[in-house]
Amino acid sequence: MSVNLSKGQQISLSKSDGTALTSVRMGLGWQAAPRKGFLAKLTGAREIDLDASAVLFAAGQIADVVFFQHLVSDDGSVRHTGDNLTGGAGTGGDDEAILVDLARVPSHIDQIVFTVNSFTGQTFAEVQNAFCRLVDETTGAELARYTLTGGGDHTAQIMAKVHRSGGGWQMKAIGAPATGRTFQDLLPAITPHL
Fold it and tell me: Where in this chain does the entry annotate a coiled-coil region (predicted)?
């Protein structure tokens, strides 16, 4: 059963039988919002390039990053499946995904922050049906979903993070709007959430 997360809500990343998850997928999906007006009907929706990134932190410092130009973490535990330049057709599938092998994440990595940014510069008011979801990669079961609602004039979002808690991992939906075309632009906005 999937949990619809609201901003700031946390869930523990463990299976219903109490065992820890070993591999999760953070999926991102979106489509361009339809344009309004006469010319919009002729030209159709504008292509929007959203990018998912995972920033790995150790004691508050960046240790590694996985994004469209660096698809696999240096240790191999986090992997981006590839850059989608236009989004989906509204079918609800993941347009970009980042796979995290939690069992292989080095012990010094204590947080992984997931971000999304509009590389082409459109605001989230021009995006619809955008979501971030966490899936148990072993079973394919959706564990949690965070829906990007409300549009807005921002071009990026600090989506969620997974962080070590005791002997396991927890996920926290952050949902903080930000401005930037790349994960580097978002670092000042990420810091308060560490």
Answer: none
CATH number at residue 106: 2.60.60.30
| pLDDT tens by residue, the chain, 194 residues | 556 767 666 666 766 666 777 888 888 887 766 655 555 555 555 667 788 899 999 999 999 999 999 999 999 999 999 766 555 644 567 788 999 999 999 999 999 999 988 888 878 777 777 777 888 888 888 877 777 655 678 888 888 888 998 888 888 878 788 999 889 999 999 999 99
Contact in structure between 43 and 32 (CB atoms under 8 Å): no
Q: Which residues contact 128 (CB under 8 A, 6 or more apart)?
A: 30, 31, 32, 33, 34, 90
* Reported pTM: 0.83
* 173 close to 9: Cβ distance less than 8 angstroms: yes
Q: Return the bridge partners of 14, or none.
A: 20
40: in domain: no
Tokens of 166: 């005791």
